[in-house]
Input
Amino acid sequence: MYRKYSEKEIRNIVGLISKRAEGSIYAAITVYALGGKASQINPFETAFFYRQADYIMGIQTVWTDPAFAEENTQWLKKRFPYVKSLTKGSFVNFPYSHLRHYEKEYFGWNAPRLKKVNKKYDPYNVFTFPQGINGSPRP
Output
């Protein structure tokens, strides 16, 4: 989050979670503060590119019964685009498998450099994750 939101945007954000998906035991919009020391480090010095943001916003739903997995996945998939429209990038510690260009979303302009680092220190791709650097994203 790089700016303050209007009252209408805030109402829309709250509205995203006003009705949970069937089987959901918890749904939330969470806002994590940035700024401070994090913003004083150059975005190109580490993997975390979005250091100048004021906040990180996340949306989630939690279910315990596997029978509700698809319903909750679709609930999130329907709401994520609005969160995305208000923010830049995506936080790698809150992975979302439906990101089209996940490396750019997670690592910004650091992705090309991180690919070189990965190739040097993990040439056989031992440390792999579907949305990691040089990962194999799901369709």
DSSP finds five helices and two strands in the chain.
